[in-house]
Amino acid sequence: MSGNLDGRVALVTGSGRGIGRAIAEKLASEGALIVVNDLDADIAGETVDAISALGSKAVACVGDVTTPDFGKQFVETAVKEFGGVDIVINNAGYVWDAVIQKMTDEQFEAMLAVHTIAPFRILRAAADFIRPAAKAELEKGVVNHRKVVNISSISGLYGNAGQMGYSAGKSALVGMTRTLAKEWGRYNVNVNCVAFGFIRTRMTQELGAGEAIAKIGNREIGMGIHPDMIKAMEQMIPMGRGGTPEEAAGAVYLMCIPESNYISGQVLLAGGGLIM
Length: 276
What we know:
This protein has one domain: Rossmann fold. It is built from 8 helices and 9 strands. The chain has helices spanning 18-29, 41-53, 70-82, 105-139, 154-158, 164-184, 227-236, 245-254, and strands at 9-12, 33-36, 58-60, 87-90, 146-153, 189-196, 213-216, 219-222, 267-270. Strands 3-2-1-4-5-6-9 form a 7-stranded parallel beta sheet, with helices on both faces. Strands 7-8 form a two-stranded antiparallel ribbon.
């Protein structure tokens, strides 16, 4: 443990599995205290245990990020358990795809709810702690950089057929990032966005490689990509392969360390060189 983030309190949504878990473990390995989130208490608990094994501390805040009161609950957990908020990672999300003529209002609105509205509510709740804390620090001459990293996608930057809702939600998150960077710069908060290309996770596994179902409320949404499509995507990537969750987490980590204290309002594409 190098300690680049010693004592920093990090909130990571959707950190029970996949990229979110990799982010939580990466930050914890550098000394951060983690508030883990997942819909499933058992899955969240596994991440908490893994972080404990790394020698850091974590607590779980189980719940659906799209519920109106989740943001407040999430932030209050961090303040109550660890005394503050230093890093906010808006990672939770899923895909529910269809071409536009087949996409229902429910599908489109669900994508906006999880990828745009939920991060907005979490950051609005975080403002209740961050703004007064930063003002008090500045009055004492203390410069304390906090970090917000919103997770977008190459689909949010360039669009993707069959992902009208997902692309819209992830694109909106880029605009939110750049706006908040301007609003919170005075508080020494760096607000950036990491957009992922093709990352190998449960959500992007090959169809037929094993059933993967996301249980979202009362809905069950199948996940996976046809093997031919995966092969075609990887042929387009200059590095010749999809990324790992650990590599995705590394990109987020770059936006959380002191070396990024003068970077704000930016979008980092972690896609192995793929530019659409």
